[in-house]
Amino acid sequence: VCLMSSVFGWAQQSLTAGLVQRTIFRLRADVDAKLARLPLRSFDSHPRGDVLSRVTNDIDNISTTLMQSLTQLVGAVLTIVGVLVMMLTISPLLSLIAVGSVPIALAVTVLIARRSQRQFAAQWDRTGRIDGFIEEAFTGHAVVKVFGRSRAFRERFEQENEGLYQSSFKAQFISGIIHPAMMFISNLNYVAIAVVGGVRVASGTMSLGDVQAFIQYSRQFTQPITQTASI
User: Fold this and answer.
1) Environment class of residue 7 by beta-carbon count within 10 Å: exposed (0-12), middle (13-18) or buried (19+)?
2) Rounded-to-integer distance, Cα 176 and Cα 116, Å
3) For a Cys staple, 211 with which of 34, 66, 197, 229, CB 3.0–4.6 Å?
4) Nearest-angstrom CA–CA distance, 124 and 136
5) Which has the closest alpha carbon to 133: 162, 153, 155?
6) Which letter, b or e, does each residue of 47-61 get, where b requires 16 or more Cβ atoms within 10 Å of its Cβ?
7) pLDDT (tens digit, 9 = 90+) per residue, 34-68?
8) What pLDDT does 225 receive?
9) 203: how many CB neighbours lie within 10 A of its CB?
10) End-to-end Cα, the chain, rounded Å
11) 96 and 218 Cβ atoms separated by less than 8 Å
12) Cα separation of 123 and 167, whole Å?
């Protein structure tokens, strides 16, 4: 079983890497073709750094996200379905309590994600601006030196860098709240299952071993949900 698990794990990573890289390859080709079709006014109306950021940073972020999340999402879905079947065979009532935490987790995730998305948009807007400024400064480095604008460029860079820091900090901080929030909901779910399970054990309608097994299954059920929400 361990050998088969290793083989399937290797095959999974190989298939995922091939799928993602072929997708990113076609995406880069489509972006290059799109840029070739754009009129000059499009480049005049957008900073160079913003265009470069979309071609490089955005595509790299898509590639990283797909590599990290695609495998986790597939595994999470299969785990949730399998564990849910096992929980239903032990206790439909406790299964209902476990599943009841899912809408709460989704609502909290949506609430936090809405706030973080605005900050991530500001972060990548700032990234494009600072990339454009750096490209302009280093391309025209000789001109900047000749006209004595080094100090002005340095002050502007500090302003852009500070703006990028603020937006990045807010984006990462707000999105980082999702995982602790999911863990808090998971712990509340654990308490509810333990209380209801304890009552059923005391009444003789359920064995202690079944409650212990169900608690383990509930942990396995909420863990992939937490990981998916974090993604």
Assistant:
1) exposed
2) 9
3) 197
4) 18
5) 153
6) bebbbbbbeeeeeee
7) 888 888 777 777 766 677 777 777 888 888 888 87
8) 66
9) 8
10) 29
11) no
12) 5
CA dihedral defined by 176, 178, 183, 188, rounded to 10 degrees? 140
Q: How far is CA 68 from CA 27, 75, 82, 124, 147, in A?
A: 18, 12, 22, 20, 48
Instruction: Return the minimum-mean-pLDDT range out of 25-29, 76-80, 82-86, 227-231.
Output: 227-231
3-state SS class at 1: coil
C-beta separation of 211 from 198 below 8 A: yes
In Å, what is the CA distance from 86 to each residue of 4, 79, 81? 23, 11, 9
**DSSP state letters, 70-87:** HHHHHHHHHHHHHHHHHH
The pair of three-digit structure tokens given for residue 76, joined into one six-digit string:
């999470």
Longest CA–CA separation in the chain, Å = 89
Look at phi and psi of residue 204 and say left if phi exceeds 0, alpha if psi is from -120 to 50, else beta: left
What pTM was computed for the model?
Answer: 0.64
Burial of 22 per CB tally in 10 Å (0-12, 13-18, 19+):
exposed
The CA–CA distances, whole Å, from 15 to 44, 67, 228 equal 41, 11, 21
**Which residue is associated with the tokens 């603020």?**
166
State how far the Cα of 192 lies from the Cα of 38, in Å rounded to an integer. 58
